[in-house]
Amino acid sequence: MLKSIVLSGKKLTPEECRQNIVDVFELSTPEQREEGKQWYIKANEMCFDVSMKYLMPEHQVIGILSALSPRTSWEINQRKLQEVLSKGTTFATGLQMDKVKRIFQTDFESTVLDILNGDKTKNFYLNIRRPLSSKAVTIDTHAIRVAYKDFKREISEPSMKPNQYRFFAEGYTSVASKLDILPSQLQAITWVTIKSLYS
Is the whole model's pTM more than 0.85, yes or no? Predict the structure, then answer.
């Protein structure tokens, strides 16, 4: 594991990462903790409803949602999913639309994960697909800001290398284990919490 990481000129050690995650978790209200625990469950339910509406396998719906998720708010991510399924296109990068088209064409879940390829999109997929059992961790901009306890939004989400992604994922996994919750639940709780604390 990396001994430290530097993003936006700010150094972070594994110990600081874990403590900052704990600190943000402890700032969460009971309502935020419940919202976070339910977040991926509700995302899964939304995708199930969409799969029924468009008569598509659920793994394809979640795969397309995940492919369209980078650098996009949850609200816009859902809108883009609906646009792709109803109109065949949406505002997205060429790479994202290429992944969407390939996901449309596959019947196999394992192939969807191969198509998604990136750590963030694969883990986002796994968290939504199996919200009650997945040990995956979605590391996005907000998850990184939690790890830095960055309430001023000074840290930007980089294109992370696998070992950098693991650095943050292991921080969440370690803290979640001590709290006896899933890493995805911890990430969602702190995501809800830090968004309410941005200055």
Answer: yes
